[in-house]
């Protein structure tokens, strides 16, 4: 779970004349993670040591001059670079005291920004869109600068990024309500222009943030209506048709943030890592309409991870360096350390069913990400290696046996680095081919792929449904077992398929041996003489329900045949479904789910199936009650709570139907007697508690006695 | 061995007071400790942590800080006074008013020439330490706000002062403040509350360490006045700090009951530069840790829960030895219960009052393990409140139960008791010489009172119905200046033995009124002495658990004692960590010596063989399970009974029944908790009072 820690003040702010301006033009990283250069909106540049909250040095330009771009630090030459009055580039070192005596160069066109990444060369971006390396610019300061942008086009935001030792300048522009993204690669110089999809008319992005990962540049932007979009651009595809036409830039909605009343005015979103976004100036979803919050959102699960109220006005500015957020608010610039550990789905969602397999959530993140990239960039998608490509191509056409052999061979090669994406691609390919071609199906290969545990439902959403369609229940079982993210609808579809399957068919299946052996022992086990769990004993409830048992299900047999026998030995429950069917049903019981999503799908079951399922659940419950600990084997087996949860859910979903169904009557009465026995148990426990407390009191009384005469014997 | 009727007494609800401050003297290895009631205790860490001296407190004297200067000990408190203690006569030597309001802290320079105190009015006052007294020298530049903590740089040139919301550095020569370091307040609701810098430490490399009420331990650069590092160690207060002598380790006590250790080490293996890294956390207290001392090998801590805990650092001591065992010192190492054997009365000594109880009676008989029906309940006969605000140092009840004496630092009082129609009369005319009584003791026929006085002398006073007359003073020849801490007479009235903290034991012949002999000096301090009623052998138990028996007639160690020394005591006996505080004998069986420590009582049967090193020392359970004939083969001289916890007294009455005064532990713990709450509110009240709110 991401967290925001207690912040501290770096410096005070001198807000500009207008209250909308924080007075800070920019913050840039300096030599290490603990130093930053802060440029104010007028005349001075200050170097801070962050952990000490102390300015180390400060430089100012003369009265009348203004700084027009944030100062940057060139770590290679240990120099600072800043631009004053749009055209004068100034360069100085730490030991220079006066900025006026430092190096100056006047260029022929207005500069928008100077960018410099640690280890990279400083790059100058001109207001009209031209880009120059600082060194080459300074060799001839008065060189002519071309105009890249159209007449009414103006730069809104810019940054630079180093990707695979190539430097990119990225900037966005606005022209008559349209937004464009420019990707300028240096050495060799190429320029690509993209058109951002239009949001509601009149809305243009409030803030941008860019990052580079997996050979893609990822751009994140926030609109005043609270929508946060992500666009992904491949670095490789650049350079084909240079600058000719603005390509449409596909986008995906990452977050829809609550905006409260009206639109956002001063807000900013910054990417923290692949799954987390820091947002400032947006209301906290549970704290009214005030917009002075700093929040961290998880984009994978769209959950709020941490939030913090910032005192004073928010200017919509936010910077992040080495796990610290820098945020000007009110009259201070605060530094807020944060942490975004790799999260698990469980901690993000809050609910964890204990059948959940602990696969790192990476799988899911990859799933999302690969889907995104597939969707947005099919064109630029490329396979990691040639041989894999071959196999992929091969799977598209080759007959079943050969595909099986090839995939097996591929998987057995230990040298494949990123197995995860490969497995995903293979599985999707096989599934789509199987769906398209009814004659093609590779059960063993698919099972093998699932067994790698690198797959999840999101990567290959059609796999489970395909398995159901082909009645490959072994594969279904594996999917239920290994996929952490099966949607409730699919779970329900599986349940439906399993329960409606004839037992004869089920017995022919070969299933996962562990789960089968668990069911075998459960069904075959001799009833333990003692050790009833949860106090339920059928003996005590026989009198209550003996008349109802006759009408009901197949669960309770030997109904009232012999009173004597009944009172001495409770009837042995018999499993209402076959062994293999039970194994499959157990697998359903073990999946993770959320009640609200499962309930509507459960309603699809027919009443006949519901009764059978309930009978099975009742059988499990009885077995569990009779034996103190059937789960001791370490085999995959549902827990008692899981069984009870399912009973409750099925009853909730089909309450009216069950009441009306005559066959269900006995079952309901039986379940009712469960509840009764539980209630009785609780009341008995209450009584015992009372007596125990009384005992305790007596004991204490004896102990606290102030005086006693005792006989002791020493030997 | 047989059955005993035991009066199990749990109504002595003695509670030690919370620990407020401590100071460790590494030269003498003495720990000085002061409690909330003002009582001062001196522990000798070189001699099994024995509590060798106690100076009782006084009503309304709250000591906040302690400071050793060489062998001299100074304290200061919220009453605004500086006190030097007279550790030979066990009383305050003199008191000097500082005139700066309540004093929060005291410290001295390394040279031991100057003493400084931090006052409520914002002044740091310097006192010159003269031979016999201290003299005010000057004030440092006065600050706004109280001075809560002080630390002198070892060079003597700079002084760091912890205040409200800040730390000041003073130039010790000019007295001017040179730096002001602001300490950040706590977060959330406590943002509006001033942060109190409870403790500062100035290291020789000019690093300043501070602990404050916002739960931070901060490392500062004292030369530039900048913050180097902040360690948030608790949600509540960091109340005290202590730095090891070599400045490589630092401990901080918190109000959560934890002690956090920091060490000056390089944080990663390949890194050359060393820094203060948080290393260990000890949780040995249930409540606030108010006082800490970092000895060379151990962390010593104390606080609200009244226990003194010595936690050896396992990197400094050999593992799995007695040295590496943690010690908790919960009860005083001296007897607070006096038993009048003939009358069946018990005298309980509390800091500010005394209680006399009569034990109950039962005429029933029972099997071992039974509780007998109580025919007559025990009753509290007298509760005597101490006079004048001085707390009680020592008390005694005569064997007949008719005389009661107690002493404070300033006086000795004697009372006559009558029981048929309960009355208590103060003996008004006491001899002038009887003004000091570190230890009091009555002769067995109740005709004489012995009171130990200055320089290990003993004053003998004769008592009868009409008057109380000074007889003479017994003086040792050794010229020791240490006080007597143990005093006992023989049953026949012939002998009187004294033991002092120089480890000397003197035996006087009361008939000849002169020194009879001096027992050869053993290196460890005696913790209990007694003279056998029939054989006149003196039994001495020392802090290192050794037992000696010395024949007063032959003036030499007895055969049994030699045998014991030759064979050596059982290792489990030597490993016990509480001293034996009382020795007594059985009249019925002269071979029996009865002694006890905090966790057990033991009857040593001198007629039985001593336990070999391989035999089971605690063998009562085994013996119980054996048939009668076989027991004799397995039994040995040490019969140890561990049925009782927190044993304060084991005594044999005239009817041969044992009296065991023990505290129920549960009762004790809940009492600590309850008291911690009331003290907390008192503490708050006191501080509010001090702040003038």
UniProtKB/TrEMBL annotation, chain A:
A GO MF term: RNA binding
Which residue intervals define the domain Nucleolar protein 11 C-terminal in the entry?
Answer: 404-715
SUPFAM superfamilies, per database record: WD40 repeat-like
What domain of life? Eukaryota
Major localization listed first in the record, in broad terms: nucleus
Cellular-component GO terms for this entry = nucleolus
Q: Does the keyword rRNA-binding apply?
A: no
- Domain named Nucleolar protein 11 N-terminal is located at 1-338
Which cell locations does it reside in?
Nucleus, Nucleolus
- Which Pfam families does the record cross-reference, listed alphabetically? Nol11_C (PF20998), NOL11_N (PF08168)
UniProt cross-references to InterPro entries, sorted A to Z: NOL11, Nol11_C, NOL11_N, WD40_repeat_dom_sf
Q: Name one GO biological process term.
A: maturation of SSU-rRNA
- Which keywords annotate this record? Activator, Nucleus, rRNA processing, Transcription, Transcription regulation
Recorded protein name is Nucleolar protein 11
Q: What gene is this protein translated from?
A: NOL11
From TrEMBL, chain B:
Domain Anaphase-promoting complex subunit 4-like WD40, first and last residues per copy: 136-186
A Pfam family of this chain: DUF7165
Q: Which Gene3D superfamilies match?
A: YVTN repeat-like/Quinoprotein amine dehydrogenase
Among SUPFAM superfamilies, the record links this protein to: WD40 repeat-like
Domain DUF7165 span(s) in chain numbering: 438-594
Which cellular components does GO assign to this protein? 90S preribosome; small-subunit processome; t-UTP complex
Family matches, as PANTHER family: U3 SMALL NUCLEOLAR RNA-ASSOCIATED PROTEIN 4 HOMOLOG
Protein name per the record: UTP4 small subunit processome component
From which organism does this entry originate?
Answer: Sparus aurata
Primary gene name: UTP4
């Amino acid at each position: 779970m991401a967290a925001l820690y207690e912040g501290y003040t770096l410096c005070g702010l001198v807000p500009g004349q207008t209250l909308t301006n924080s007075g800070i033009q920019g913050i840039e990283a300096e030599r290490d993670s603990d130093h930053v250069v802060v440029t104010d909106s007028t005349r001075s540049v200050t170097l801070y040591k962050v952990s000490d909250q102390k300015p180390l040095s400060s430089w100012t330009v003369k009265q009348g001059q203004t700084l027009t771009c944030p100062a940057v630090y060139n770590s290679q030459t240990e120099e600072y670079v800043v631009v004053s009055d749009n055209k004068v580039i100034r360069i100085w070192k730490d030991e220079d005291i006066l900025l006026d005596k430092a190096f100056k160069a006047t260029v022929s066109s207005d500069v928008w920004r100077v960018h410099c990444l640690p280890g990279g060369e400083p790059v100058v971006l001109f207001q009209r869109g031209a880009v120059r390396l600082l060194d080459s610019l300074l060799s001839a300061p008065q060189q002519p600068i071309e105009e890249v942008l159209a007449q009414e086009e103006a730069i809104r935001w810019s940054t630079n990024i180093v990707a695979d030792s190539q430097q990119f300048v990225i900037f966005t522009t606005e022209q008559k309500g349209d937004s464009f993204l420019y990707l300028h690669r240096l050495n060799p110089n190429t320029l690509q222009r993209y058109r951002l999809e239009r949001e509601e008319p009149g809305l243009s992005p409030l803030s941008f943030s860019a990052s580079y990962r997996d050979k893609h540049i990822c751009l994140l932007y926030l609109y005043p209506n609270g929508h946060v979009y992500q666009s992904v651009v491949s670095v490789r595809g650049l350079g084909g048709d240079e600058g000719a036409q603005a390509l449409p830039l596909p986008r995906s909605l990452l977050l829809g943030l609550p905006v409260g009343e009206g639109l956002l005015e001063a807000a900013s979103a910054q990417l923290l890592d692949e799954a987390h976004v820091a947002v400032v100036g947006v209301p906290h979803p549970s704290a009214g309409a005030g917009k002075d919050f700093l929040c961290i959102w998880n984009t994978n699960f769209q959950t709020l991870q941490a939030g913090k109220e910032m005192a004073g006005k928010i200017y919509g500015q936010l910077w992040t360096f080495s796990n610290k957020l820098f945020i000007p608010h009110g009259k201070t610039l605060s530094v807020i350390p944060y942490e975004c550990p790799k999260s698990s789905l469980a901690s993000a969602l809050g609910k964890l069913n204990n059948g959940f397999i602990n696969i790192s959530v990476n799988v899911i993140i990859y799933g999302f990400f690969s889907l995104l990239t597939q969707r947005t960039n099919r064109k630029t998608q490329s396979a990691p290696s040639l041989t894999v490509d071959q196999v992929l191509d091969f799977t598209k056409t080759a007959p079943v046996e050969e595909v099986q052999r090839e995939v097996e061979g591929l998987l057995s090669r230990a040298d494949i680095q990123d197995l995860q994406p490969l497995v995903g691609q293979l599985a999707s390919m096989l599934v789509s081919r199987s769906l398209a071609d009814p004659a093609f199906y590779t059960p063993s290969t698919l099972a093998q792929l699932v067994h790698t545990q690198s797959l999840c439902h999101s990567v290959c959403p059609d796999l489970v449904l395909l398995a159901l369609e082909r009645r490959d229940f072994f594969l279904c079982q594996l999917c239920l077992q290994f996929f952490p993210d099966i949607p409730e609808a699919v779970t329900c579809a599986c349940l439906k398929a399993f329960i409606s399957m004839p037992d004869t068919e089920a017995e022919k299946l070969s299933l996962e041996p562990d789960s089968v052996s668990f069911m075998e022992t459960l069904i075959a086990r001799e009833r333990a003489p003692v050790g009833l769990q949860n106090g339920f004993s059928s003996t005590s409830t026989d009198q209550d329900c003996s008349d109802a048992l006759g009408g009901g299900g197949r669960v309770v047999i030997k109904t009232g045949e012999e009173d004597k026998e009944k009172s001495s030995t409770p009837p042995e429950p018999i499993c209402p479904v076959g062994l293999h069917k039970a194994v499959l049903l157990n697998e359903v019981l073990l999946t993770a789910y959320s009640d609200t999503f499962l309930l509507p799908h459960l309603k699809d079951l027919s009443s006949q199936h519901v009764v059978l399922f309930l009978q099975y659940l009742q059988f499990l419950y009885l077995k569990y009650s009779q034996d103190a600990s059937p789960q001791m084997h370490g085999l995959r087996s549902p827990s008692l709570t899981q069984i009870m949860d399912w009973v409750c859910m099925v009853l909730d979903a089909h309450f009216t139907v069950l009441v009306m169904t005559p066959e269900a009557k006995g079952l309901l009465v039986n379940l009712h007697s469960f509840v009764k026995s539980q209630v009785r148990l609780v009341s008995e426990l209450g009584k015992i508690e009372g007596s125990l407390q009384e005992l305790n009191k007596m004991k204490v009384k004896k102990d606290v006695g102030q005086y006693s005469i005792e006989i002791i014997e020493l030997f | 061995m047989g059955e005993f009727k035991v009066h199990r007494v749990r109504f002595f609800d003695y509670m030690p007071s919370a620990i407020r401050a401590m100071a460790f003297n590494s030269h003498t290895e003495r720990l000085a400790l002061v409690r909330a009631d003002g009582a001062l205790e001196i522990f000798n860490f070189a001699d099994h942590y024995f509590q060798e001296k106690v100076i009782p407190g006084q009503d309304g004297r709250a000591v906040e800080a302690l400071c050793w200067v060489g062998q001299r000990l100074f304290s200061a408190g919220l009453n605004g006074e500086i006190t030097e203690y007279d550790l030979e006569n066990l009383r305050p030597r003199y008191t000097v008013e500082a005139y700066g309001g309540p004093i929060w802290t005291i410290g001295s320079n390394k040279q031991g020439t100057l003493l400084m105190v931090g006052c409520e009015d914002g002044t740091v006052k310097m006192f010159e330490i003269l031979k016999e007294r201290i003299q005010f020298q000057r004030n440092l530049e006065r600050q706004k706000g109280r001075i809560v903590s002080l630390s002198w740089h070892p060079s003597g040139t700079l002084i760091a002062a912890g205040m409200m919301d800040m730390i000041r550095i003073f130039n010790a020569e000019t007295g001017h403040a040179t730096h002001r370091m602001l300490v950040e307040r706590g977060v959330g609701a406590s943002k509006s509350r001033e942060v109190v810098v409870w403790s500062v430490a100035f290291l020789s490399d000019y690093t300043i360490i501070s602990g404050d009420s916002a739960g931070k331990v901060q490392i500062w650069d004292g030369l530039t006045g900048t913050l180097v590092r902040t360690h948030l160690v608790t949600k509540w207060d960091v109340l005290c700090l202590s730095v090891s002598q070599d400045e490589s380790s630092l401990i901080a006590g918190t109000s959560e009951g934890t002690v956090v250790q920091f060490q000056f080490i390089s944080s990663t293996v390949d890194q050359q530069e060393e820094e203060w890294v948080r290393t260990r956390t000890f949780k040995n207290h249930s409540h606030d840790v108010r006082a800490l001392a970092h000895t060379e090998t151990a962390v010593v801590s104390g606080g609200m829960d009244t226990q003194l805990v010595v936690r050896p650092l396992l990197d400094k001591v050999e593992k799995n030895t007695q040295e590496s065992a943690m010690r908790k010192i919960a009860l005083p190492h001296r007897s607070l219960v006096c038993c009048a054997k003939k009358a069946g009365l018990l005298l309980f000594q509390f800091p500010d009052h005394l209680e006399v109880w009569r034990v109950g009676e039962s005429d029933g008989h029972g099997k071992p393990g039974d509780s007998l029906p109580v025919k007559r309940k025990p009753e509290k006969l007298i509760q005597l409140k101490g006079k004048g605000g001085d707390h009680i140092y020592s008390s005694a009840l005569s064997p007949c139960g008719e005389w009661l004496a107690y002493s404070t630092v300033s006086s000795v009082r004697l009372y006559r008791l009558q029981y048929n129609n309960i009355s208590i009369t103060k003996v008004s005319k006491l001899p002038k010489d009887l003004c000091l009584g570190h230890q009091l003791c009555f002769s067995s026929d109740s005709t004489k009172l012995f009171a130990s006085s200055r320089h290990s002398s003993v004053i003998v006073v004769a008592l009868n119905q009409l008057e109380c007359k000074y007889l003479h003073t017994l003086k040792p020849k050794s010229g020791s200046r240490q006080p007597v801490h143990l005093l006992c007479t023989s049953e026949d009235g012939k002998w009187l033995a004294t033991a002092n903290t120089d480890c000397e034991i003197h035996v006087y012949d009361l008939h000849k009124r002169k020194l009879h002999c001096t027992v050869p000096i053993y290196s460890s301090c005696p913790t209990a002495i007694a003279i056998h009623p029939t054989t006149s052998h003196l039994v001495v138990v020392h802090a290192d658990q050794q037992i000696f028996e010395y024949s007063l007639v032959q003036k030499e160690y007895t055969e049994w004692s030699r045998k014991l020394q030759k064979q050596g005591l059982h290792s489990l006996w030597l490993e016990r960590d509480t001293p034996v505080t009382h020795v007594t004998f059985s009249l019925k069986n002269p071979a029996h010596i009865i002694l006890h420590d905090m966790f057990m009582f033991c009857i040593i049967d001198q007629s039985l063989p001593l336990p070999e090193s391989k035999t089971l020392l605690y063998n009562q359970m085994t013996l119980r399970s054996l048939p009668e004939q076989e027991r004799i083969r397995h039994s040995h001289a040490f019969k140890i009974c561990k049925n009782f916890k927190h044993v304060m007294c084991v005594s044999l009455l005239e009817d041969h029944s044992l009296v065991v005064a023990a505290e129920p532990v549960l009762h004790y713990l809940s009492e600590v908790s309850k008291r911690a709450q009331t003290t907390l509110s008192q503490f708050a009240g006191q501080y509010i009072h001090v702040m003038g709110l």
